[in-house]
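seq as requested:
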Amino acid sequence: MFALLVPATSADAECIALWKDGPDALERSTLVFSGTVISGHGVEVIFDVDRVWKGNLERKTTLWLMPGMEMITFDKGTEGKTYLVFASFLKMFSSPDLRRADGSSPGEVALFEISSCSPTRPLANAQELVRQIGSGKPPRN
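struct tokens:
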């Protein structure tokens, strides 16, 4: 699974949550999962997915950040940390400038948005949301 993350708002902007609780955020999102950041290299983030609430994700899932729009970042400082992630599909995306950490081109990827106003957060700070949305299921292997 490849996804490109686009933060929707600036870190300095005021957030207006478009979700009222965990079930509402789950319904409004395309992908909802918890996972540990294996590798964060600017535009490419690889997660070891632990639980899936929405979407058909593999244990090892690669997400992409829009270059230059890294308000929500999963960089080297986040490696080893586990997050509850809520993402919304925007469109398919392809660019000759998009590169993996190894320099290869991923081809076309799914472009997702993770708003800084979304409930995405470190899993340690998301226990109430997890309680509201249930236990989820394991990812595909």
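The CA atoms of residues 22 and 131 lie 8 Å apart.
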